[in-house]
Amino acid sequence: MSKLKGCDLPEDLYYFIDKHIWAKPMQGNVIRVGMNTVAGKLSGGKLNAVTAKTKNIGKEIPKGKSLATVESSKYVGPVPAPVTGTLVKVNEKLDADPNLAISDPYGEGWIAELEASAWDQERSELVTGAEGLETYKAKLEAENISCE
Amino acid sequence: MDEDKVMVVMTSGPDTPRRCATPFFMATLAAAMDYEVTMFFTIDGTLLLKKGLAETIYPKEGGKSAGEFLQEALEAGVKMTACTASMELHDLTQEDLIENVKMVGGASMWQMAEECKTVLSF
Predict the structure, then answer these.
(1) pTM here?
(2) Residues of B in Cβ contact (< 8 Å) with A43
(3) Is there a contact between A76 and B25 if contact means CB atoms under 8 Å apart?
(4) What pLDDT tens digit does each residue of chain A (148 aa) get?
(5) CA distances, A3 to each of A7, A9, A11 (Å)
(6) Residues in chain B whose Cβ is within 8 Å of chain A
């Protein structure tokens, strides 16, 4: 686990750094998506709700469009799709415990799974690995974001 | 009717601070769900669009001001419209209001409402 300014960011994940979303290739073209620790920090603490648009299951969501929404006492905002894909599954555990999305963001707190439409093309727009995290670090420093 | 359009009607104002957060929150949330959101301010709601006024209203003591809720809604892309008749009620002119507010008549409100999938009134 790499730490950037106190934010845990595993090197093996892909990041949509504009929106602080992680993406992880699973089997086939399935991409698991969640909020990263930076998003958790920006949301201001305990989440009251994480709500996926379940009516979108089976529909293609363009990159950047909303997969789900996050509500806390300090923040309300979207969880955008990091790549274009068909929404195949949402994490039902978040109904009972929405805070899992930030207390265990890379494990039980994943938010949704997409069947990516063009992963091989769109993955290049995400950052990953040591080099990608350097890019992310520069963004956090430029925007004065810290998890410490 | 457009599937992606929703509208929030806001009638509460400075006399009822506790009613001045949720309408903005719900509008911001709808924008986060990729709906095209319009807020329509009428009766006392219009006063919240007066420059500097919403910043003095605290729905919860020690919490965020109505101005912060309003700003978050604007940043999320919520369109703000003010009822011309309520402007007259409060002796307001366009110059008294914050930027990016469109003044509309009651008939426009009806047309906007007809185009929306959902109209939520506070």
Answers:
(1) 0.83
(2) none
(3) yes
(4) 678 888 999 999 999 999 999 999 999 999 999 999 999 998 887 898 999 888 899 999 999 999 999 998 778 999 999 999 999 999 999 999 999 999 999 999 999 999 999 999 999 999 999 999 999 999 999 999 998 8
(5) 5, 6, 10
(6) 25, 28-29, 32-34, 64, 72, 76
